[in-house]
Amino acid sequence: MASSSHNKFEDSTYEAFDQYFDHQFDEAFENLCNTFGDQTEEKKTRKKRVFIERNREEGHLRLWNDYFSDAPTYPKNLFRRRFRMNKPLFIHIVDRLSNEVQFFRQKKDGLGRLGLSTLQKCTAAIRVLAYGSALDAVDEYLRLGATTTRLCVENFVEAIIDLFGDQYLRRPTQDDLQRLLHIGELRGFPGMIGSIDCMHWEWKNCPTAWKGQYSRGSGKPTIFLEAVASYDLWIWHAFFGPPGTLNDINVLDRSPVFDDIINGQAPQVNFTANGRDYHLAYYLTDGIYPKWATFIQSIPIPQGPKEVLFAQRQEAARKDVERAFGVLQARFAIVKNPALCWDKVKIGKIMRACIILHNMIVENERDDYTQYDVSDFQQGEGSGSSHVDLTYSTDIPTNIANQMGVRTRIRDRQAHQQLKGDFVEHIWRKFGRDQDTN
């Protein structure tokens, strides 16, 4: 009996303790919920964005009176400096974008109020590209917020690529080639169609996981641009995207610069140097490029007056691509400053759009600053030995045997040495008298 009563006492004690513990736990939990519940609700409540009445109509009116009215505040030279192009060219771009791109059309909101004008959106994009400024730098003048400005830039570069890319970043046509050959012959290099080189664009916000792939030298990540430029600074070829750890030779191995020739889709070029006939156009390069039949480098340590004259002429003509890089960065500071985007695809679109705009400006202003008179030149005809073979068919089906044969011709070191020697003699015959006179 004693043991039975003792067990009943223990059971009742445990039950009372459990009830007391459950009661205290529930009370403490309820107090915690009451204490922190209000804070949790405050955290879950999304803070509304502050509305700023920017008065966008006033921004459009100010922009119109400053630059686009019949009696604008600022003259043509200031428009050219701030927009990087002449007013008729900018108006042409604005008209194309407003007619063919939905984003740039001025629309009404739900209250019937007009939104941002096409001029405001295009001006905001051009200012960001030209000055490389922060996205909200145009807020006070054009009345656009940073988010809206970013959308303007992204849609602007995509529209430039879609609407003007095929025309202003094209492969040289037969007429283009004949004009380039004509100028090249005047400069002492028959068969030359431009100069090729590479530049770096620093990528400030490169993802940490990629920095080792894109960094070398200074330790800052960069992206490569390979380009071909002609005497008028027109950029005919742009290959952007290789990581900065590569050099010019590695980029050349990845580049499609010779794909048209290898596939038989490029027109054939014929020219004569020192009495010898050649049938493959070439580029002027610096010393890092390989000794191929399509590249002509300078002579590092020239021996004798002939080689000295050749080196001077080659280095002077090769600077076209260096000048093109300098003018591109001067016109569009966003390309000169470190890239702030995280997305490499967007960076590539910005570079491509800047090159297209650069070529549009070159075409618009070419006659104002070119140092070569081409008034006596008729497109499709050449007065010298360099000319495009109009009978050459580019529709020939290609196969691996033909492609390997052309590839071997392009990389022929013996042909390179022979061509370079012929140019030394050719340039001496053409300009040697001037050298003796001086």
Provide an overview of this structure:
This protein is α/β, with parallel strands linked by helices and 438 residues long. The chain has 16 helices and eight strands. It has helices spanning 2-44, 56-68, 76-83, 87-100, 118-131, 139-142, 146-168, 174-186, 211-214, 248-254, 259-262, 304-331, 333-336, 344-369, 400-410, 413-437, and strands at 192-202, 222-229, 235-243, 268-273, 276-278, 282-284, 295-296, 387-389. Strand 2 (222-229) and strand 3 (235-243) form a beta hairpin. The longest helix is centred in the N-terminal third of the chain and has 43 residues, at 2-44. Residues 378-382 have low confidence and may be disordered.
How many H/I helical runs? Answer: 16
Number of beta strands: 8
How far apart the termini lie comes to: 136 Å
Task: Give the overall silhouette.
Answer: extended
Strand order of the largest sheet: 3-2-1-6-7
Radius of gyration, in Å, reads: 33 Å
Helix/strand/pairing class, anyone? Answer: alpha/beta
In terms of quaternary structure, the protein is single chain
Q: Taking all residues together, what is the mean pLDDT?
A: 86
Low-confidence blocks of residues: 378-382
Compact overview of the structure:
This protein is of the alpha/beta class.
